[in-house]
Write a structure and sequence with these properties.
By secondary structure, the chain is α/β, with parallel strands linked by helices. It has five helices and eleven strands. It has one domain: Rossmann fold (3-Layer(aba) Sandwich), CATH 3.40.50.150. The strands form two sheets. The chain has a seven-stranded mixed sheet. Strands 1, 2, 8 and 9 form a four-stranded mixed sheet that branches.
Amino acid sequence: MGMPAWRILWLWGRLGRRMHVVHQQVVRVEDVFGDKDRILDLGGGGAGVIGQLRGQQVTAVDIRQDELDESPPGPIKVVADAKALPFPDGSFDTVTAFFFLMYVPAADRAAVLREAHRVLCPGGTLHVWDAVIPARGERTQELFVVPVRAELPDQTITTAYGVPWKGREMSGDSIARMARDVGFAVTAIAQEGETFRLTLTRPTG
């Protein structure tokens, strides 16, 4: 997921009055992955931040082929629905979701988390970076847009993420509650600006 800055500017010119754009969010992406980790990146098309970080260790899944085609080379690319992943149980050491859950309607997020839990090996970790999306309320804008400056150890990626606002409300706490319900242990939760970060672990027991 994610789009280049030129596309956001083009959309702003065409749809500006319909877009609620927050200030650019600086997100530091630390390389917490082991060299032998099997990494599944949900919504890994578009900017493909995790794929750019770990290359061939990453299997990037996206429901849209065009998003995968746009993403930089390196990872394995698979067209798949995150609610029904085409992988056996316990296939991955790590799952990542970098500004992906905001694209998932609220009613479907538990199913995505359940699938992430299933394909993780016991003791594996799900890393989530995403936007805090408040209720739309009486505001007239239809699209919620988050410009992001992703700071990786050896490069910076500037992109933006935008979704229809209605039905996409989200916070770190709401995702943590869902994650606990499907069997994850919440090992870290943090909010900075308009974004949050979660570290979720599949228990070994």
